Amino acid sequence: MAGQDERFSSADLGVGEALHDHWQSMLSTTHLPWTTRLTSTETPFEASIRRWWIDDLALVDCECGPSSGTRQRRQIAGTDGEFFVVLMNRGGRESVTQDDVTIDLEPGDAVAWDSSKPARFTVWEQLSKRSLIIPRSAIEEIGGTPWARGGVKLEASSPSAQLLTTYLDSLSSTLPLLTQSSLTAARNATLELLIGALRPGDAGVTSASGPAMRESMNRYIERHLLDQHLSPGVIAQAHGVSVRTVNRVFNATGQTVSDLIRVRRLARARVDLAETTQSIASIANKWGFSDASHLSRTFKSHYGTSPRDFRADRAKTTPVA
User: Fold this and answer.
1) Core vs surface per residue 186-222: b (16+ CB within 10 A) or e
2) Nearby residues of 224 by Cβ (< 8 Å), 6 or more positions away
3) Contact 6, 50 (CB under 8 A)
């Protein structure tokens, strides 16, 4: 999938049901499964979609006419995995509804939605939009689950949202040229910028168990992932607080210390599988898994594929530098 550029178009595919069916298929193939409806009979419906892969993240540009769509129980059940999606309006008007909240998007606005919950959209006029589709496993890697929830609007005036949008604009023009290591770095930068745009500001936080302390602990964990003795006690000592405080900081976001350490080590193992020729057993030992089987079971549970299959897939899709 590395850096691939895929294009889809509704051109020259007739009218009526054939066009409707093709639009629904295009949207469901490039985004996630939807049931759609064309809502205007005044002008011919046209749509084009371009998709890039930032490793396991999908970046999808779409232009389309007035239409609507829903994701209900059947479409959710037909989705392979759970995803967090950020939709950015680049021109036109669209409304997105999730959790009984309807958000009207003007150019420059963005909305986040959750693939595991019902949702619907309405495109009111010719629209240009960009979607960033992120597996839930990737969000968990950076401890972003507390902020990755549906029905959140990112205002066009927000500096962090502007930074994310500008970065994706630049990235889309260079993705096909990136090596696997550069693509991995771009993926991780995209995730960090996304969480920065979603995370509420820290103004007024004074408690030692607030977001600033959590960020400090996250950075400490990242620097010491190779330490096999990394634990809440070690983290507490490094920060001059009690183990109870460490656990309270993490539990406030629905994640334990061991959860974060596990997913961060899995993320590092994932990089090694993609970028090195180390054996799976060596990678398992390096990142604190008891053996190759332990890594394989944990990796497949988190990413939905085995380390062996993941490595084989990356070998087939990595561009030649």
Assistant:
1) bbbebbebbbebbeeeeeeeeeebebebbeebbeebe
2) 230, 234
3) yes
Sequential DSSP letters for 178-234 = --HHHHHHHHHHHHHHHHHHHSPP-TT--STTSHHHHHHHHHHHHHTTT-TT--HHH
Residue 277, SS3 per DSSP:
coil
Is the same domain home to 239 and 183?
no
Annotate 118-178 with DSSP letters as a single string: -EEEEE-SSEEEEEEEEEHHHHHHTT-TTT--SSEEE-TT-HHHHHHHHHHHHHHHHGGG-
pLDDT digits (tens, 9 = 90+) for 142-191: 777 767 777 788 877 888 888 999 999 999 888 888 887 888 889 989 98
Confidence (pTM): 0.76
Structural Rg of the chain based on CA atoms = 21
Question: Of the candidates 220, 306, 313, 294, which has an alpha carbon nearest to the alpha carbon of residue 264?
Answer: 220
130 and 164 inside one domain? yes
Beta strand 35-38 with 110-114 is unpaired
CA distance 135 to 14: 35
Length of the chain: 321
If asked whether residues 95 and 222 sit together in one domain, one would say: no
**Which residues touch 204 (CB under 8 Å, ≥6 apart)?**
none
Single out the residue of 172, 119, 162, 139 nearest to residue 56, CA to CA.
Answer: 139
The parent domain of residue 244 ranges over: 211-317
**Residue keyed to tokens 């607030």:** 210
Q: Tokens 């993609």 map to which residue?
A: 274
Q: Name which of 120, 124, 133 is nearest 105 in CA terms.
A: 124
Domain co-membership, 173 together with 260:
no
